[in-house]
What we know:
Elements: H1 4-19, H2 31-43, H3 49-55, E1 98-104, E2 112-120, E3 128-136, E4 150-157, E5 170-174, E6 177-182, E7 190-198, E8 201-208, H4 214-222, E9 224-231, E10 235-237, E11 244-255, E12 258-267, E13 292-298, E14 308-312, E15 315-320, E16 327-336, E17 339-347, H5 355-363, E18 365-367
Antiparallel strand pairs: 1-9, 2-3, 2-11, 3-4, 4-8, 5-6, 6-7, 7-8, 10-18, 11-12, 12-13, 13-17, 14-15, 15-16, 16-17
Helix pairs in contact: 1-2
Amino acid sequence: xxxxxxxxxxKAQERQAQRAHAPDRLAAELPVRVARRVRRRRYQMIGxxxxxxxxxxxxxxxxxxxxxxxDASPLQPGGRPSAASQDNPAGASTLPPVALGYxxxxxxxxxxxxxxxxxPGPGGSGSALSVRRIWTDEPVGTDGSGGSNGIILTxxxxxxxxxxxxxTGASVDINGIVGYYHGPQGGDDxxxxxxxxxxxxxxSLAVHNEHLTQQDMLRIARSVRPDPKQLQVPLRLAWLPxxxxxxxxxISGDAPTAWRAAVTATQRNANGAPGDASTAPTGHSAGSNQxxxxxxxxxxxxxxxxxxxxxxxxxxxxxxxxxxxxxxQYLVVDLGEDKKLTVLxxxxxxxxxxxxDLIRVAEQATAGDPAAAAWIATA
Length: 379
């Protein structure tokens, strides 16, 4: 029998498969997708996002001002002792600008880019382990749940000289490079084409529920060109517990004044890599023990209602631990002017996160330049 967290991650991977190319081609799954799946399936908090976005104010506060202070309500540790006394490597809490790599220069009418997600490469060099960009003709909201339908461009590092392989795909020409087109199968309305764009990069172009023809997809694929731009997420975590580092970032929304910025951190193992089987409790797989902290700045929050009221350096906040067979902890800080900071901690019930650490993460979060979201839905 699988544990609830294993079911959660399995379902998150199924959702990821709908938003990307073939599952066996994915780079490391982004932990933030787990948080999305939790919000989407467990609490059904999506219904009125489009209306909320239309009324959202511009996210223009340069600094959240959530630094440690004496006015926070007394809190009791929840879980293992805090790792705050340990050294965290310089830059581990910061998502560096990440190269976007490529973009299509032709798209069907009505499609605009609304989501950018990236995993940074090692050492803060600006390279990317993976990049995902989504163009859609419908709203995606500001709670991180939208974007299942659209035109999805995914970049990942090649893993072998023959990557990508044909598998069941048909050979196609992408500007003189052999690629492989995979049409919809078994009633699934998803198709994708992938090819080796350069020595180290595999590009996948996927569509879901858009009813584009193979000719349309190949036209988009053949229009893909290098893009010198970078993903810069206007949200910085100035502090993380020892042994944790930022592993992904995202911006999504429907206008330059209605957006969500999010970063996700995971716990590193003894080798400095994100947690794997070596950090899992006895009897649990690596995936089931994925511990993550996702922090988002948005006009909305998907945290359940209620919770314990407290203040975080004078700002009203609430701490919510849903009565579920999962270790989920939400901290929502109301920043005023329709802006909320949400910290979501996810872990196995046998290894819960320390809530004081989650609060300290919020206290030292900093908002960046809102100009980083100026591209949303403009092209």
